[in-house]
# Entry
Amino acid sequence: MSSTTETIKPGTSDYHWVMTVQTADGRVNTRTAIITVPDGFSRADAFDYVFKQFKDDYGIPITVVFFALESNQL
# Structure
């Protein structure tokens, strides 16, 4: 098991997200990543940020099948 020490900038927080989408032609894609957001960034802002990545890759319409957003801090 390895350990990583990361420095978070003051006024920001790290969040881990997972999103699964399905395209109109039935393709399903799941992605996960960590985003660093400024204080005051809302859950809706985070959803829009993540969804835009899928929309840019697949176009619309796409359906969000699953979305999770949790603090990356244990």
